[in-house]
Amino acid sequence: MEITVVHRCFVLLSLLCMCLNCRGCLEEERFALLQIKDSINSPEGSAFPSWYSEDCCQWEAVECDASTTRVNRLFFHHKRDLSVLEHWYPNTTLFAQFKELKELELPGNNIKGFTSPHELRELKQLQRLDLHDNSIEDAYGFCWGKRALPSLYHLDLSANNLTGFIPECICQSRRITELILYDNNLHGNISPCLSNFSSLELLDLSNNNFSGSFPSPLVHNLTSIESLLLSSNQFTGKVSFAIFGNLSRLGRLDISYNAHLELETESQTWFPSLNMYVLNLAGCRLRKFPSFLSTQNNLKSLDLSDNVLVGTIPSWVMHNTTSQLKVRGNSLSGHFLEIFRNRSSQLTSLDVSNNRFQGPFPEDIGLIFPELVNLDASDNGFNGLIPPSFGRLNRLFSLDLSSNELHGEIPFFVTSNMSSLQVLKLGRNNLRGYALPRNSSLPEFKILDLGHNDFMDNIWRSFSQSQPLSQLRVLILRDKPFGRENTTGIVTVVDIRSIGKQSVR
Ligand SMILES: *[C@@H]1O[C@H](CO)[C@@H](O)[C@H](O)[C@H]1NC(C)=O
Ligand SMILES: *[C@@H]1O[C@H](CO)[C@@H](O)[C@H](O)[C@H]1NC(C)=O
Ligand SMILES: *[C@@H]1O[C@H](CO)[C@@H](O)[C@H](O)[C@H]1NC(C)=O
Ligand SMILES: *[C@@H]1O[C@H](CO)[C@@H](O)[C@H](O)[C@H]1NC(C)=O
Ligand SMILES: *[C@@H]1O[C@H](CO)[C@@H](O)[C@H](O)[C@H]1NC(C)=O
Ligand SMILES: *[C@@H]1O[C@H](CO)[C@@H](O)[C@H](O)[C@H]1NC(C)=O
Ligand SMILES: *[C@@H]1O[C@H](CO)[C@@H](O)[C@H](O)[C@H]1NC(C)=O
Ligand SMILES: *[C@@H]1O[C@H](CO)[C@@H](O)[C@H](O)[C@H]1NC(C)=O
Ligand SMILES: *[C@@H]1O[C@H](CO)[C@@H](O)[C@H](O)[C@H]1NC(C)=O
Ligand SMILES: *[C@@H]1O[C@H](CO)[C@@H](O)[C@H](O)[C@H]1NC(C)=O
Ligand SMILES: CC(=O)N[C@H]1CO[C@H](CO)[C@@H](O)[C@@H]1O
């Protein structure tokens, strides 16, 4: 009797174990993962130390389908030990074991190529392949043929070492809607076959060496495009903005910094049906603020740097841009901040540097830009005092007012109330008084540039009377003497962790 009970218990337990096991991962998938672990750690490395339990679905960087318990997502981000200089050549046959794999992410693993790359064709369910930030050279490895990878919609080969032309065969993977190839060495004309990709929603070819005339016919055919990023290439020619006018889904456009591109925005009085949120037209030889911007009410980020804009910033540009505005490197002038009188802005980043703006900063600047994180107003003709209300900008991370005509003292609140400030550049002005007001407290401070001013105080005394600047890494004081000490000609770019204890000369 007792024996039967024990026996029954044993049978039950065994059944339970089998059941638990069958809910775990497949043996062949577990085995493949362990082989991948060996290979990513070869010849040395310590990735995935926790991979040993039975159920590989519980392992780090592995996800399984809840019902089939088959691996459906692998995300090995920066797992290969980069001190091992040898490249990794993953054996695609191992990955082909995961028949239900939907997402394969291998960024930052020093991959130069694959062994038997064509095996990836077995992954009929693969939707996303992310190989960002590796050293892959051969784009032809991604020619899988017409019917292969029928589910793949996202291919990211950015920040690799791809050279040559975009292979035509990539166009055979018709389902791709997101093609990301920025930061490579691709060159030549953009393959015309891409214009057959009418389903493309995201195309990012920035930071390559594509040349020839701007691919207007291609743009015309990308009727589903939402993000089109073609900046920092060698495209040439005169382009009318009208070519983008019919791309009704376009939300993000960047054609900045192409070699000889000249963008024409005013050839017709027309207001495109676009509703853009990011528009980067830096270095496009614009002479005027594009008038169509006055109807773009949802712009978050606008970059018109390094054009040939003159006059002042129109109020509709200031008011309609809600997060980032850059107009660096133009010939803009006037008192553009006047338009904010009694209004506040949601901008988090404003770069007006290297222009010809003048006049004082408004007294209530701290109320105008309550959200500001970065302000660069350097290389202009701003004058007057630094308003103490800067001290209200408690999110400000970086403030650059260098190379202007500011005078007076640094207000105490600027160096005591800006709890997030890490970078303060006030060099090349006519500031005087204490280099750092007494009792300054800048807990996050990392970079301080005070050179070329008329501070009377001994800089080290200023520092010693301030709260510890424990994070300070770089201090720049140039040319003009500080106080009575003979420090003329000093150029100090130092890593200071113990300021006040010793003086650096
Ligand atoms: C790739 O993996 C398969 C399956 O384990 C194996 O048969 C093959 O020899 C491997 N290829 C290389 C080049 O290591
Ligand atoms: C990129 O490829 C070139 C040869 O085409 C090679 O000289 C260079 O070292 C490679 N760079 C990297 C980062 O692998
Ligand atoms: C576009 O696709 C069609 C049909 O597949 C093909 O005949 C044509 O050559 C393609 N166009 C380009 C520019 O590749
Ligand atoms: C643009 O698309 C149309 C229809 O989809 C096609 O006939 C035409 O060849 C394409 N243009 C280019 C330049 O590929
Ligand atoms: C880019 O292409 C031009 C020719 O179009 C060539 O002279 C130049 O060396 C290339 N630059 C790089 C970084 O490959
Ligand atoms: C945009 O569409 C309109 C009407 O459909 C058409 O008249 C115009 O030529 C198109 N513009 C471009 C640049 O294709
Ligand atoms: C701003 O508001 C003040 C009072 O709150 C008012 O005197 C001034 O006229 C207003 N300025 C502008 C430009 O509306
Ligand atoms: C100091 O910052 C706080 C917000 O962090 C602000 O409410 C206060 O007005 C500021 N004080 C001065 C004098 O700017
Ligand atoms: C600096 O702090 C000390 C002690 O906290 C205080 O006695 C002194 O008045 C403060 N000086 C200034 C200028 O705020
Ligand atoms: C400052 O130092 C320089 C070079 O070290 C010297 O030529 C000059 O006479 C000194 N000036 C004073 C005021 O000590
Ligand atoms: C969101 C926003 O501020 N939209 C403005 C854009 O500019 C036009 C013209 O100045 C204003 O009428 C909108 O209110």
Automatic annotation (TrEMBL):
It is a single-pass type I membrane protein. SMART domains: LRR_TYP (SM00369). The keyword Glycosyltransferase does not apply. It holds the Pfam family LRR_1. It comes from the Eukaryota. Residues 1-24 form the signal peptide. Residues 27-65 form the Leucine-rich repeat-containing N-terminal plant-type domain. It is found in: Cell membrane. Keywords: Cell membrane, Glycoprotein, Leucine-rich repeat, Membrane, Receptor, Repeat, Signal, Transmembrane, Transmembrane helix. The keyword Cell membrane applies. Its main location: membrane. Belongs to the RLP family. This is Leucine-rich repeat-containing N-terminal plant-type domain-containing protein. It comes from Hibiscus sabdariffa (roselle). The lineage of its organism: Eukaryota, Viridiplantae, Streptophyta, Embryophyta, Tracheophyta.
